[in-house]
Structures are given as C-alpha cells and as structure tokens.
Amino acid sequence: MVSSKEQIEDLKAELKERNKELAFMYSISDSVDSHGENLETLLQEIIKPLPKAVRFPEIAAAELNVAGDTYKTSDIPVTEWSISGNIVINKKVAGKLTVFYMENRDVFVRQIFTHEEEGMIRAFSERLGKIIERIWSEQALLEKTREITKLSTPITKIWDEILILPLIGTLDSERTLFMMEELLNKIRDTGSRYIIMDATGVGTIDSAVAANILKTSRAVKMLGSRMIFTGIKPEVAMTMVHLGIDLGEIITRATLQEGVEFALNEKGLEIVRIEQTST
C-alpha cells in the first residue's frame, strides 16, 4: 500500500516534470521572437532546451531532420532509447524530431519515456511543422515581392556613365531601400557617374521615403557619382514643403529631358537639333 508521503513525493516529481515541459514550451516562443527571420539559426536554437524537458536531461539529446538538413544537440548518433515525432509541412511529412537518451539506466524498468513526454514531443513536432511552414511561406512571399519590385524598378543605362531610374507607383520605405540597394549595385557594376532619378510617375512622397532618397543621394556621392532628381509634380513638391523635407543636397530638374541635358552637359556633351534640308 502506497503511503501518503510517497503519494506526495510522486506528485512533487510529476509537478517538476510538468514545469520543465512548460519552461520548454515558453522557450519556443522566445526562440521564434529572437531568430524568426533566420530559419537555420531558429531550428538549431529551438531544439537546444528540448533535452531539459525530459526526466533525465543529463543524458538526453535531440536531433531534428527536416528538408534534408540535420540539427542536433549532440554528436552522438540516435540510440534505441528514443522517441520521435513527424514534422508535417503542407500536409506532407518533411522531417522527424527525435529525443533520445545517450545511455541506458536501470531506472528504465517500465518505460523509457512517460506518456506525457510522448505527448509533448508529438505536440512540439506538430507546432514546429507549422512554424517552418509559416516561415517558408513568408520567405516565398518576400522573394516574390522582391522580384516584382525589381521588375517595377528598372535601371537603364542611356549613355556612357549615365543611368536612369524611373520611379513608378507608390513608394514605401521597404521599396525605397530595395531600390537603393539595386541602384548602388548597378553603379558599381557599370561605373556610372550620373544617376537620373525620375519621379514623374510617383503620386506622393512622404517624409520616410524622402529621407531614404536623401540617403541614396549621399551613398551615390560616396561612390563618386552624382544624383539628379527630376519630374517632381507640383502637388508632391507642396506636400514635401509642408512636411519640411529639404532636398537641397540633391540636384533637381523639372523634367526628365532637362535632367538628361544636365548630365550630358556635365560630360561636355550637348543635344543639338539637326535641321533637315530639303533636296
């Protein structure tokens, strides 16, 4: 017959195990918050505390296999004293999470892992699959967005050392930063000295976008080039004045044609009308 004292000790031990499982579950959220943008780092970090969630953490290890990659907390191969859960992504098994003991002990008289631990591993494997699926979806969407943004931000070389970047549609901070990155890479690749940024197709420019344009101009200058800003609409100009946006550091011209003429003049060239003669 089990004494009351033994029952209390069993309850204490059970409570201790549940607390370890809860602590592990909380650590998942912390890992996602800290490393959610880098999937490889996230998966390595997210399994680190897993061995601490089972009864014998000092001899426990974890291994995660997903999409052909392996993440583990120990270099020791998975042993026979293990429990696994499938990683399901987009309704397909894409990997497996395994928790195992690196050695056997005499205490394993009934079962190696408790029913609660088995349930925890299954629940965590299911949650991990959803986390990976969400991150993959976000990465695919981001890549598609970058492709669309690149197509909507054509940078064209119109003359030796002269680039044109027409701004089209609505500008936001993310798109402007991407545009700056692409422009600087293009300058590096082509050695262009004059960059004409034409805003004829832009409906509005807010303070954040204007700040990024200024940063772009400074970055262009650091590469030994000059930026010419053209095509600012009157309503956009008024909005920028009301917002206190000062583009004084940037060369501005009313139209794209004037911007091209300025760049050519700087190179010692000019546009000359050719008079047609009748024969």
TrEMBL record:
Q: Name one Pfam family in it.
A: STAS
Sorted alphabetically, the keyword list is: Phosphoprotein
What superkingdom does the record give?
Archaea
| The STAS domain, residue ranges | 152-263
What protein name applies here? STAS domain-containing protein
Organism of origin is Methanocalculus taiwanensis
